[in-house]
Amino acid sequence: MLSLRSGYLAIATLLVASLLGASALAADSASPNVAPAAKKPAPRPVAKKPPPPTLPAPSVALDLEAPAQGPLFTMSLKNTGTVPLRVVTDVRLLRLTLPPLPGPVPKGKKAPKPIVCSVPAANRPQGDGDARVLPPGKTYVQKFDVRTLCFSADASAALDAATRISAAYGFDSKSLLPPFVVSPLDPTESEPTPTIASAKDVQMAEKDLAPHAVVPKVAPVTPSQNGTPRDADIGLPRLSLTATARIDTDSADSATLTATLKNDSSRAVSLALRPFVLVLDVTSPSGHTTTCNVAGNTALSRDLLATIGPGRAASLSVALGRFCNKGTFDERGIYAVLAHVDTRKTDISGRTDGIFLGEIAAATPSLVRVRAGTVPVVNALKPRID
């Protein structure tokens, strides 16, 4: 019995071994030996192109000169290099930096920053179309009204007090793309590649500013009645006229001037305070003078007059572009507008006692900066190349 079981066991063992051998043989036949794939060679390093040579900056010197009196400053750009340059010529690209107004700094407050005078960004040139060729050793010279840059009350006061000044001329941008204020000339067959770089702006280091008076100090104008100076003995009212000090605008159509008449007398004063009594003497950037006034019904009854009490004031506002003739404010730049109130042509029905019939002028003109318009044609502002 034992030998029979041993026989069965031996047969089973042989059977399993034969099955395992067949499986291994099938696996070997299904997966023949394959040589391992060869590794790809490492890519060869690509030689980098050498960076383009750095070109030298253009040699240009910026300078400013202030007159002893008056608003016409002089800007100059000199080509101090050896090659001709293309220079954008527009004084609206100029920026002045002035020390802050002198005075004590309040406790806990930061020291005031320098004051930068410039045309608003929206009114500066956006391209480099207005340009000239500046040969080596030559200087571009341009006079300009400094009030077109230093127009605000703070900027004007800082300019009057300044003893030092620095400046920059060009496009106020960090971009490396055009426009450029200074650049080489276009390529030619003889010089196909530029030898100098382009520049966004030109800097002038801080320097001393000569004593100057942008607006000369003048004595106040004495108001008059019928051309006669006020005389307390004959009981004439003491009136004073002021007008908007500064008006900054792109168009005179949107600019409003307000004339304010103050009664410094001890008694009330009546007068016709209507648009037809307002007179504006306008001096343009090119020096032309125009008088603006409007027609109106000068025949008024006493109850239609304005009465200004002692120490009180009354105002009259007009839109400059509508009050003055068309074209009066077409030029770009600074206008001086002197306001008058002239009631001498008023025809009052009934009694005229206590009614002011005379003319009063403002002590100082209003300044109007028109930021857009035609360039004023005047010999003093014509640029030149020396």
Give a description of the structure.
With about 375 residues, the protein is mostly beta strands. The protein folds into 2 domains: about 60-215, Immunoglobulin-like, CATH 2.60.40; about 225-370, Immunoglobulin-like, CATH 2.60.40. About 10% of the residues lie in helices and about 30% in strands. The protein has 3 helices and 26 strands. The strands form 8 sheets. Strands 14, 17, 18, 22, 24 and 25 form a 6-stranded mixed beta sheet that branches. The protein has a 4-stranded antiparallel beta sheet with strand order 1-2-7-26, with no helix packed on it. Strand 1 (about 60-65) and strand 2 form a beta hairpin.
Tell me briefly what this model is.
The protein is mainly β and 386 residues long.
Q: What is the CA-CA span between the terminal residues?
A: 135 Å
Number of domains: 2
Shape: elongated
Report the major sheet.
6 strands, mixed
| Content-based structural category | mainly beta
Unreliable residue stretches: 22-27, 217-234
Average residue-wise pLDDT:
84
How much strand content do the residues show? 25-35%
- How large is the count of helical segments? 3
- Rounded to the nearest angstrom, the radius of gyration is 42 Å
Q: State the order of secondary-structure elements, H for helix, E for strand.
A: HEEEEEEEHEEEEEEEEEEEEEEHEEEEE
| Architecture per CATH nomenclature, i.e. the level-2 architecture of the largest domain | Sandwich
CATH C-level class of the largest domain is: Mainly Beta
Residue share in helix:
10-25%
Number of strands: 26
CATH topology of the largest domain: Immunoglobulin-like
